[in-house]
Predict the 3D structure of the following.
Amino acid sequence: MPVSCKNCPLRKCDYFIPMTEAELAFMISFKTGEMVVEPGTTLLLEGSNSPQLFTVLSGMGVRYKTLEDGGRQVINFLLPGDLTGMQSAIMGEMKHSVEATTNMVLCVFNRADIWNMFKAHPDRAYDLTWIAAVEEHFLGETIATLGQRDASQRIAWAYLRLHRRLRAVGLGDAHHVPLPFRQQDLADALGLSLVHTNKTIARLRDMGLAAWVDGKLSIPDRAKLAALAGVEPEPLDRRPLM
Amino acid sequence: MPVSCKNCPLRKCDYFIPMTEAELAFMISFKTGEMVVEPGTTLLLEGSNSPQLFTVLSGMGVRYKTLEDGGRQVINFLLPGDLTGMQSAIMGEMKHSVEATTNMVLCVFNRADIWNMFKAHPDRAYDLTWIAAVEEHFLGETIATLGQRDASQRIAWAYLRLHRRLRAVGLGDAHHVPLPFRQQDLADALGLSLVHTNKTIARLRDMGLAAWVDGKLSIPDRAKLAALAGVEPEPLDRRPLM
DNA sequence: CGTAGGCTTGAATATGGTCAATGGTTGTGG
DNA sequence: CCACAACCATTGACCATATTCAAGCCTACG
């Protein structure tokens, strides 16, 4: 049985800006159902025109593009609280694919209801745009990382980003977070080969900066890792939940 | 004297989805003025909270991030018809800087009027989100390019993208478009060193695939260049103009 | 138990980076 | 009008980071 938005566990996270009663009421009507998928399921396919959007309730996945020459680029990781399918909803076509890595539970919304949201619930429409702006920000950071940082820095940056984001939705504890991806996924996200990714992961582990073992990531000292990555300890801005 | 949106030359471009009369009327009131800047002017500064957004009427610029270690990553190029400043408007802080490369003329909007737009003009709010989705799409393409393509492919990809986009707003002719950036700008956009960028540009020129000389880019045969870049001749989707 | 998927490791290679220097053009001041 | 500085494009030599190729290993699972 689906969880009502009223009892949505994500709403309890400080990471998300609280909803008003009116917003909550709207979300309950906006949510048309729940979808449960297994690892490997393709949620959205590049080039398709899905009638639905999803918010991740639990589980993780990847968004990726397949290149003409067969390569795969992971655009980013899909984590609890993330909304996906906006491109299809607004532009009429997905520009990347989305696949489940673990078992996932997703809230399902209808694309057809979006326009009604803009007319009748401008506050939620505003939040939708806010989410898009946050996404744009993250993609810009990714571009800067792929363009300017070497392998150790890229991996350190990804670790920090994922760790913080997962903690923000209450996963893991102070030092360990679940990270159920393959090394190949991280390699494809960072534009590195699997071999080099593997060796760099090992180096970070040997240096005691970060260990990603058995699907769990531990970072003993964020500051040290951040120093290696060359990133400021940027705070994680709160954002709306949709 | 500022041009009225009524006579805005950009509106004539097929690239942009036509406005309704109501939308046009709103835009005329939404636009608070025009700004003219010289090359080198910083329009928006990373970390700042600008009260304004801009649409480029003419001229070009770059959006970039400065890294802790001094590097610069150009996120993308700012071309006529582009809207910038949304991050600041929605999230309250710019996550990158924006600088004019040439002389520019910009339409100025007030951040404070955005919320009113969501309440009173849902069609325009929807278009704003649409623009954000298009931006997200382009950034995703950039990530795929930085992550998966080698130097020649990156430059070929950037050439094709800029060429098509500039043609879409009526600049240049079938084979030549103005491209007033420095090689360093392109290098910073593609995550390559200046030296390697220079040599790769020369190689493409020697192969007769694309010549960027004296601030003008010419592509004799888009199909050939696209083959080298490893990209499909993806059509340029129309989008709203704000 | 045998196969498949993912992780690990070593060796050879290459793509691209760094360093260094030259030349062309423009703008400025003597 | 010339000298000089600043900026950008260009080129060569050398070096390093990361890729590719090729095995071996471990665990889960049928």
Residues 122-148 of chain A form the longest helix (27 residues).
